[in-house]
Amino acid sequence: MKYDWSWSVFLDTSSDGVHSYLHNLGLGALWTLGLSGTTAVCALVLGALIGVLRTARSPALNAIGTVYVEVFRNIPLLVQMFLWYFVLPEVLPKSLGQAIKGMPAPWNAFVPALLCLIFYATARIGEQMRSGIQSLPKGQYQAALALGLTPAQAYRRVVLPEAFRIMIPPLTSEFMGIVKYSSVAMTIGLLELTGQARAMQEFSFHIFEAFSAATLGYLLINGTLVLAMRALERRLAVPGLIGAGSAGKGGPS
Predict the structure, then answer these.
(1) Alpha carbon 117 to chain centroid, angstroms
(2) Three state DSSP letters for the chain
(3) CB 157 within 8 A of CB 144
(4) Which of 8-12, 144-148, 228-232 has the lowest mean pLDDT?
(5) pTM of structure
(6) Which of 72, 88, 144, 195 supports an S-S bond with 154, CB 3.0-4.6 Å?
(7) Mean pLDDT, rounded, of the chain
(8) pLDDT beyond 90 at 50
(9) Cα angle at 98 between 95 and 103, to 5 degrees?
């Protein structure tokens, strides 16, 4: 196959007639960072709540957590993205639906994409939190209760801090996944990194250069994320449990 490579195409004026393709790709990377970063923070908080519900002794609370996880984990992300973008405004009260549809671009795509990713990632992180909590020795929770803490205080002050520390390796993979899942937002019109690369290839016909830049962008974002999480893992590793300091010792004790 003969292909006319031209790396200078990044400096050409894009379809908006104002900015270069390089500028637009950088802007797309910022939207990817904003979308995935906000999703990660919100999903971590809500996932911890789901993890607590999944390990609660109350059958009702356990059922709520189970239903949430099974609903949002078992529907394809693309289907959920379309439901949030196309269906939600139609089933909400008319005034609220009109307000959502009337938001200016790119917020009219960013907000549904953000809600979709938060609900999806919360289900996945919730399951990881459940496994993290259940991997802890039961004596810790019981000892906290024996010291006079309420169940809520025992979870907040003893169980969850310990679970977060041993969950850093799987959370690293989940955060990397969120960065990659954010590319699905392109399907509802959000010009994040993949969307900008696709727009560049459609107008310049330089598909290899466009997606090479997108690939490099994702590698840089996730590479930086991995390095940061490994540093955090080394700092917070729990002796005797999963962590950087005990990675070579196999599974949890």
Answers:
(1) 6
(2) CCCCCCHHHHHCECCCCCCEHHHHHHHHHHHHHHHHHHHHHHHHHHHHHHHHHHHCCCHHHHHHHHHHHHHHHCCCHHHHHHHHHHHHHHHCCHHHHHHHHCCCCCHHHHHHHHHHHHHHHHHHHHHHHHHHHHHCCHHHHHHHHHCCCCHHHHHHHHHHHHHHHHCHHHHHHHHHHHHHHHHHHHHHCCCCHHHHHHHHHHHHCCHHHHHHHHHHHHHHHHHHHHHHHHHHHHHHCCCCCCCHHHHHHCCCC
(3) yes
(4) 144-148
(5) 0.89
(6) 144
(7) 90
(8) yes
(9) 130
Structure tokens of 127?
């399951």
Q: In the chain, what's the furthest Cα-to-Cα distance?
A: 74
pLDDT tens column, 185-206: 999 999 999 999 999 999 999 9
List residues bridging with 178 in a β-sheet: none
Q: 59-73 and 107-135 helices cross at what angle (nearest 10)?
A: 130
Provide the phi-psi class of 118: left if phi over 0, else alpha when psi is between -120 and 50, else beta.
alpha
- Under 8 Å between Cβ of 238 and 162: yes
At which residue do the structure tokens 């960072």 appear? 33
As a whole number of angstroms, the distance between CA 239 and CA 244 comes to: 9
Confidence of residue 242 (pLDDT cuts 50, 70, 90): low
> Would you say 210 and 201 are in contact if contact means Cβ atoms under 8 Å apart?
yes
Whether the CB-CB separation of 55 and 130 falls below 8 Å is answered with yes
> Is residue 112 packed enough to be buried (19+ CB in 10 Å), middle (13-18) or exposed (0-12)?
buried
